[in-house]
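queue> holo job accepted (glycine)
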Amino acid sequence: MRTPQFSMSIFEERRKKLSPTIKGGALVIAANPEYIRNGDVNYPYRQESNFFYLTGFEEPNSVFVYRPGKKPETVMFVMSKDPAQETWTGFRYGTDGTKANFHIDATYPIEAIRAELPKLLADVDQLFYSLYNDRRFDELILQMVNDLTWSRSRANRGNLPIVDPRALIGELRLRKSSVEVEWHRQACEASGEAHIEVMKAIRPGINERALHGVFVRAIMERGCPREGYHAIVASGENATTLHYNFNDQTCRDGDLLLLDAGGEFNYFSGDITRVFPVNGRFSETQKRIYQKVLNVQKELVAMVKPGVSREGLQRETISKLTDVMIDEKLLKGRKDDLIEKKEYMKFYMHGVSHWLGMDVHDAGTISVNNEPRQIEAGFVLTIEPGLYIPKDSPDVPNELRGIGIRIEDDILVTESGHENLTVKCPKEIADIEAVMRHG
Ligand code: GLY
Ligand code: MN
Ligand code: MN
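queue> job finished
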């Protein structure tokens, strides 16, 4: 027997906020499919983010239907209770349990979807549904839409229009409620503490894989069921691969380690990157280049407040990092020309920020009416400038080859500016070395 870990008012509140934008229509969201790894072994399951966002329901093989203002307003198709099956794969809420525990108006066994879903779509004027997540379910939906066309076309209404709801739900997910901020804060704090555990565990000769294990154990001890994304545990020149995730090399004395990792707590993800020396002490060269990237990162964090745009932050990042590249003799020439010709992309080639939330690269558009979106209080975004100098880069100082640095914090936008949710994770050279010395 299980019971929901969350108050249903959270999900009811979210649905209420969505209702004006989809009124007259029906939203249909299918649970994430299960993926088979081999035989009867599946990959670990995680619910589809929008499905969870609106229901709190974590079982696969389920479909949620929301029809604001109609009766029934909320409907869920779920796996039926089945004691024999539950002996193997665990507890299911079943139709009655889902209705009672998740405050759903009507529930049906998933097998009834062909018979019941068309009835729920018969009196709506739009279908809000994301195609291409699950092609088998798409087929079923398209068949139903086609079947409805006959009755609709007698009134010259044509096909039921299908509208992708992701941008609409993204608008809500961008603005975190107080409970969401609290969950996010916990994800960020657990992630920061787990980074510290890795700083304490690293030493020459340890494998990146073992450090990944230290991180996962530390977030799980702090209540995270899983990571928000596969960690990047990149020693030495591996750090110059942006999303390196082999995580299987031996850490060498004198190298740096780039750790980009975050735990997920109540479906909110942390996303932190720290760079620290395998042997506990930055070399003089490492100190110099790290400090320059850190200065840029801190200046960018300081700029975050309502009204600025991610596009503006990106422009600033390019300007500041190009200065560093000129200063370090990575690039030669006039700054304006180097920016115009995108020469900086040899050493910095990604965005400085993304929205953060239930997904590490979270929902929500970056522009509104073709204009860069201005950030608002309640948004959470990352600030993550980096510098990546490939080992085989021609014409760069020898001492810099094979160094990759990214420093990433998670920033909550507030009415008066911002709050750094990952501030407790050390990033100053002296603080990192102190943690490593005393760890
Ligand atoms: N962890 C992936 C990113 O920082 O965007
Ligand atoms: Mn990130
Ligand atoms: Mn990251």
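queue> The mean pLDDT is 97.
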